[in-house]
Structure formats: structure tokens, C-alpha cells
User: Which sequence fits this backbone?
């Protein structure tokens, strides 16, 4: 990925799953009780705590339980966990605001009315904050979003209205209704400072702040709509929903920006003498992203589940522009792989393996029947993805030697993270792209000139004790060994997304019982749900990994048996991100985020300045 794509992926570390609603509410009640002890001055501490829970905690509890049903009634998707956490955060804002205001009145000549003014600003502020969150998570329409967003502020205002005695000034309902609603005698004395004009100020500030939120969002969305024709809020909503709740909304966003592409799907199969399949290499020219199980993030696992023999789904020569937009697109690739597998013409001979080098590129491969399996590496040069066009051209160079089908694998096994402007893309016109063309063409010529001999295959696998958080996907480690004319070659496939620098070379050096060996990763993105960089070897012990691979190679060498082999290619029409869409999306997101903090600060300062002016005018 590019630097901007890396920066966008790195934002996932700021997204977390909301804690369970009982946990959030427990903290809310505790904070409210503590705030009551600090704010109220009755003769009993427990009475102060009770008043804090009542006047501070009730709006939080009401918001926690009512926001979700109201939001869902309007077509939203707020969960109780989210609404409780949001209510807790807003409670903290109010408590901190009035605590600071109270401290200021102690240290300055400002009167207690200053605390009331700050309380009104805080209540309007949490309405604006809730409005922004609801619009980001559930509703694009600000009027619809304002209904669930207003619950906490409205509940607090109702309590103030009743317990401050302001209800006495209403001439509605007569003395009986007022007797039920008027509770000023049961409230703390400080609430008596609240008057009718304060509620008008609160309403005015809520309108003002909501306009500020709406203006901020319009500016935030403008570059997205002009360049991509989509809403930035849809992306934010889908991104948070996927990371925090595992939802599929992000795929709906990607479908809006997707483009149709025709991609080759190449299958290499090794079959036993009895006709059963021993191993199957499947290579769709697709990038297994963007993350988690969104799009083709779990492509390697789903491809492996469809194979009869032990499946090897390595990484193709394709970058993030060839991410699938939805999981359903994977079925088209699997169908194409099945068609290709069904028309393979098997041969009982193969060539010895060769390794061709040109500049920074190295290609290891075999000739199997009328096809060839080639694995491209740029180690020890840090490299990430080989672009689709570069891979297609390199395959054409190899096919020119006379092969009908060429499976060109990007080993994807040496990357130094997301630092720097160049993260290792092999792009058309780059020096490394021409190195790959030369290496692939030379390998094809060498294989075409070699004699054919009977071929034996051995396989071994282990799921390993590691999981995606450790950088290892569910396919674990898989090894295929090939013996032709006494020469042994090992292909090691790790279900992960790239490898720590130098680890591939350590693995190769540790296995000296075969003529050639290459290490590959699947580039599965199930390991990148939260961590944008989670490479093989970053979180696990490298020595233990090397020991496991060495043992698997030995097991595979003990598993040799004669096989027939063959390769075939089919094409699938799928919807992918599209040319330059990933880069455009990433650059827009990063630009808006980098400017967003300054813009948000400017909006906040502007509305606070207007609020101060309103209070000044009202006081005069």
C-alpha cells in the first residue's frame, strides 16, 4: 500500500468496541454520585450523592435506554452499548464543565450564576456532540438525527424546569397540575437560580450549535462528494460499524465507488494416481483486502475451503485497487477456479526448478505440463504489492517461451512497515518492474528448454497456536515439496500479511536440505482488522516459527508420492475498488482528518464566542 493508504489503515487503532451497557451505566452512576458530593452542600454525604445521581445520573440513564429505540424507530442502527457509552461521555463533559466553573467562582469574583451559564453551555454542547455522533453512525439527515441526539439534553432540561420552580411561571394546567410538577422545595438551593430566560438561552444555543455541527459536516464531506460522489459519513459509519460491531455497511459504501474488472483465475493441481487431488494452488488476480472479512479480506480461507486437496492460495500480483467491494464477489472467483480446475489437462512430467535473477527481482519456478508456476521475490529489498499491470506483463514475458498458462505469485514476504513515502509498490515503469519482466522472461525460457521427468509431490500443514491478532490467519503454515529428477524444491506458504524484514532469509538459510526454497504469504487481511501493520514475525517468536517450518518441510519430504500435474486459467468479472480509487479515498480521508481537528476547533471557538455574546446581551 502507499503511504496515504497506510495512514488511513492506521486509523483503525483509534476504533474500539463499545463496552457493555451495564459497565457504562455503572460508571455513569458512580460519577454522578461523586459529582453530587462535590456540588451539593447538605448535611449528609449520602444525600449529596443521591442528589447527584438524581440530577446528573437520570439524564444519562434515560439517554442510554431511549436513544437506541428512538434511533432504530427512525431507521438507525444505534446499539445499547453505543448509546450508553455516548451518554456516559456526555455526562463526563457536563460534570467536568460545572466542576471547572465552580472552581473558577471560588477563585474569582464571579457569582454562582456563572456555573448555571456554564451548565447551559455544556447541555447545548452535548446535544451538538450527540448530533455529530448520531449523524456519523446512524442518520445522514440532521433533522432526523436531532431527535435521538436531544434525549439527554431534553431530559436534563425537564428536570431543571421542574425542580428549579420555573414551572410556576406557566399558566397552563392550573394549580392541580402545578402541584404535581412543581418540586422546587425538594431541590438544592442552587437550582433556584435557574429562570425562564435560561431555557430560552438553552434552546437558542442548541440551534446555534447544531448549525455549527451541520456546517462542519458539510465542509468535511465536500471533497468526497466532488471527487468520489459519495458521502464521507457513509464511510465513517461503515468503518466504525465494521471495526466495532462487525457490520457489513462498509461494503455498501465500497459498492458505490466500485468498478467492474475482468481478472484471470489460475489453478495448478497435483493429482494422485487414484485420481484424488493432493494439492491445489489457486491464484485469482485480486488483492485480499481491504481489511478483516470486508470484501476479499478473507479470500485465502474461502478459496482454501473450496479445494479437494491441500489448498495453497498465495498472493497475486495486484494492489489495493483490486480489492473486492463485497464478500459476495468471492463466489465469482471460486466459480472461475472451479471451471479452470475442471478443464485441466494433466501430465505426469515436470521440469526441474530454476531460479532466475535480474536486478532486484528473483523468480523461482517449475514447468508443469503446458503451464508454469513462478514465484516472484524482491528480497531483501522491502516490497509490498506488485501492481496488476506489472504482473500481467511479467506473465506475458514468461508465456512467450511457449507456456499456455503461467501462475505468477507475488511472494509478498519482506516489508519494513508503513514508514516513509515509498512503501514498496512495484508500479509500471519502475526499475523493479523491468527487473521482474526480465526475471520472468528468463525463467520461462529456461524452463521451456529443460527436459521433462516424472514428478513427485509432498505436502504438510499446521494451523499453529497463533491467531490473527498474532499475524497468523486460520490456514496456518502450509508446505509443498516437489521432487523432479532427484532435485527437491520447497514452497512454504504462511497465512499472513507480509513478513518482518530479514525473516524470509532466516527461513531460507535454515533449510538446506533442498535445492531451492521460497517463502510466501497469502496477504490475508483478517489479521488487519485493528492493526494496520501486523506482519508475520512482528508479534510471534521468529525462532519458533522457523522451527515449525523446518519440521513441516521434513514432513512434506516424507510425504512424496507420484502425481500428475496441470494448470488452467479462467476469467471472472468482479467489482473492485477501481483504478486510483483506493489512493483517492485514502488521500481524501487523510487530508480531511488532518484538517478536521483545526476546523473543529475553529467551529467550537466560534460558537463559544457567540454564546458568550448572547449571555452578555442577556445579562445587560
Assistant:
Amino acid at each position: 500500500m502507499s503511504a496515504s493508504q497506510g495512514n488511513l489503515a492506521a486509523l483503525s487503532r483509534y476504533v474500539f468496541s463499545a463496552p457493555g451497557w451495564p459497565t457504562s451505566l455503572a460508571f455513569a452512576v458512580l460519577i454522578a454520585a461523586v459529582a453530587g458530593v462535590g456540588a451539593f452542600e447538605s448535611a449528609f454525604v449520602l444525600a449529596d450523592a443521591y442528589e447527584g445521581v438524581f440530577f446528573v445520573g437520570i439524564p444519562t440513564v434515560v439517554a442510554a435506554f431511549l436513544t437506541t429505540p428512538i434511533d432504530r424507530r427512525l431507521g438507525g442502527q444505534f446499539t445499547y452499548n453505543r448509546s450508553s457509552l455516548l451518554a456516559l461521555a456526555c455526562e463526563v463533559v457536563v460534570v467536568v464543565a460545572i466542576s471547572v466553573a465552580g472552581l473558577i467562582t471560588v477563585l474569582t469574583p464571579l457569582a454562582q450564576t456563572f456555573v448555571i451559564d456554564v451548565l447551559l453551555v455544556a447541555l447545548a454542547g452535548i446535544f451538538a456532540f450527540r448530533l455529530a455522533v448520531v449523524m456519523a453512525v446512524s442518520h445522514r439527515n440532521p433533522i432526523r438525527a436531532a431527535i435521538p441526539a436531544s434525549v439527554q439534553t431534553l431530559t436534563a432540561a425537564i428536570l431543571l424546569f421542574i425542580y428549579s420552580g420555573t414551572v410556576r411561571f406557566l399558566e397552563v394546567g392550573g394549580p392541580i397540575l402545578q402541584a404535581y410538577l412543581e418540586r422546587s422545595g425538594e431541590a438544592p438551593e442552587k437550582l433556584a437560580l435557574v429562570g425562564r430566560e435560561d431555557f430560552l438561552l438553552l434552546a437558542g444555543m442548541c440551534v446555534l450549535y447544531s448549525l455549527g455541527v451541520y456546517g462542519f459536516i458539510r465542509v468535511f464531506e465536500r471533497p468526497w462528494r466532488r471527487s468520489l460522489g459519495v458521502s464521507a459519513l457513509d464511510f465513517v459509519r461503515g468503518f466504525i460499524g465494521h471495526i466495532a460491531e462487525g457490520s457489513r455497511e462498509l461494503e455498501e459504501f465500497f459498492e458505490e465507488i466500485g468498478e467492474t474488472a475482468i481478472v484471470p483465475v489460475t489453478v495448478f493441481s497435483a493429482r494422485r494416481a487414484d485420481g484424488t487431488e493432493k494439492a491445489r494452488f489457486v491464484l485469482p488476480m485480486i488483492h485480499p483486502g481491504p481489511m478483516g472479512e470486508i470484501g476479499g479480506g478473507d479470500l485465502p480461507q474461502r478459496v482454501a475451503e473450496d479445494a479437494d486437496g491441500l489448498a495453497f492460495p498465495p498472493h497475486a500480483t495486484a494492489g489495493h485497487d483490486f480489492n473486492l467491494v463485497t464478500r459476495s464477489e468471492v463466489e465469482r472467483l471460486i466459480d472461475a477456479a472451479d471451471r479452470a480446475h475442471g478443464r485441466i489437462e494433466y501430465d505426469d512430467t515436470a521440469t526441474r526448478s530454476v531460479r532466475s535473477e535480474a536486478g532486484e527481482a528473483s523468480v523461482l519456478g517449475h514447468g508443469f505440463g503446458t503451464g508454469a508456476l513462478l514465484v516472484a521475490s524482491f528480497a531483501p529489498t522491502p516490497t509490498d504489492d506488485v501492481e496488476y499491470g506489472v504482473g500481467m506483463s511479467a506473465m506475458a514475458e514468461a508465456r512467450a517461451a511457449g507456456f499456455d498458462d503461467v501462475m505468477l505469485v507475488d511472494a509478498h514476504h519482506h516489508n519494513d512497515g508503513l514508514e516513509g513515502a515509498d512503501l514498496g509498490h512495484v508500479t509500471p515503469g519502475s526499475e523493479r518492474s523491468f527487473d521482474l519482466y526480465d526475471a520472468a522472461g528468463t525463467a520461462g525460457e529456461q524452463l521451456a528448454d529443460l527436459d521433462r521427468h516424472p514428478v513427485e509431490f509432498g505436502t504438510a500443514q499446521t494451523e499453529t497456536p497463533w491467531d490473527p491478532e498474532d499475524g497468523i490467519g486460520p490456514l496456518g503454515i502450509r508446505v509443498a515439496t516437489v521432487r523432479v529428477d532427484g532435485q527437491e524444491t520447497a514452497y512454504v506458504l504462511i497465512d499472513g500479511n507480509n513478513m518482518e524484514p530479514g525473516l524470509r532469509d532466516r527461513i531460507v538459510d535454515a533449510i538446506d536440505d533442498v535445492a531451492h526454497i521460497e517463502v510466501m504469504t497469502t496477504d490475508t487481511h483478517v489479521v488487519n482488522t485493528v492493526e494496520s501493520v501486523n506482519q508475520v514475525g512482528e508479534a510471534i517468536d521468529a525462532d519458533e516459527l522457523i522451527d515449525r517450518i523446518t519440521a513441516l518441510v521434513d514432513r512434506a519430504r516424507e510425504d512424496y508420492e507420484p502425481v500428475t500435474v496441470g494448470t488452467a486459467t479462467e476469467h471472472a468479472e468482479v467489482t473492485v475498488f477501481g483504478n486510483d480509487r483506493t489512493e483517492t479515498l485514502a488521500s481524501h480521508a487523510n487530508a480531511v482528518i488532518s484538517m478536521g481537528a483545526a476546523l473543529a476547533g475553529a467551529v467550537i471557538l466560534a460558537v463559544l464566542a457567540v454564546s458568550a455574546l448572547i449571555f452578555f446581551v442577556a445579562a445587560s
Q: What stands out?
A: Residues 259-350+373-383+404-419+452-577 form one domain. The chain has two domains: 3-244+583-619, 259-350+373-383+404-419+452-577. The first strand starts at residue 259 and ends at 271. The CA atoms of residues 459 and 480 lie 5 Å apart.
